[in-house]
Amino acid sequence: SPDRDTDMALLQFLSILYIISQTEADTGRGALRLVRNNFYSTVQAWNSGIVEIFYGNIWGNICDDAFFAFDEADVICHQLGYTAASTYGNTGTITSYGTDLNSMLIEDVSCSSSDYLVLLRCSVTTQYSSFCNDHSRDV
């Protein structure tokens, strides 16, 4: 029937708008995602992986430097929808996450509270030291 066809077309259109809006929301400045073997998740599908941040209109890495600790890990977990971090670290020699070729975007992440809900409430710098060029320090 024509009404049913119109309803189906409207439903498809609204579904597409919803998907686009969610994609735009997920890629706002400071959005985070977990990455494994070039696949990513912005929802609670995984409990570990390389953390990437959308910053400066590109996805990139966070350097685990001397400042990174449980407060910062907790804030990342909060933003990704988890309660808190049970552990944290850098990728080091972990190969199960795959090869990561993204640029380092931020380091010196320092959160004065583990209660923050988004990482960009913490102080960060975009001027990173040379030891961050090696992907073994990716958060």
Characterize the structure shown.
This protein has 139 residues and is of the alpha+beta class. Helix content is 25%, strand content 21%. It contains 2 helices and 6 strands, in the order H-E-E-E-E-H-E-E. The chain has helices at 2-26, 70-79, and strands at residues 32-36, 39-41, 50-55, 58-62, 104-110, 123-125. Strands 2-1-3-4-5-6 form a 6-stranded mixed beta sheet. The longest helix has 25 residues, at 2-26. The chain is elongated and about 65 Å long. The termini are far apart. Residues 16-25 have low confidence and may be disordered.
Order of helices and strands: HEEEEHEE
The chain-level mean pLDDT equals 77
Overall spatial form? elongated
Q: Hey, roughly how much beta strand do the residues contain?
A: 15-25%
Structural class, from helix and strand content?
alpha+beta
Regarding quaternary structure, how should these chains be classified? single chain
Distance, first to last CA: 55 Å
Describe the protein's topology.
Elements: H1 2-26, E1 32-36, E2 39-41, E3 50-55, E4 58-62, H2 70-79, E5 104-110, E6 123-125
Parallel strand pairs: 4-5
Antiparallel strand pairs: 1-2, 1-3, 3-4, 5-6
List keywords for this structure.
139 residues, alpha+beta, 6 strands, 25% helix, 21% strand
How would you summarize this macromolecular structure in one to three sentences?
By secondary structure, the protein is α+β, with helices and mostly antiparallel strands. Helices cover 25% and strands 21% of the residues. β4 (58-62), α2 (70-79) and β5 form a beta-alpha-beta unit.
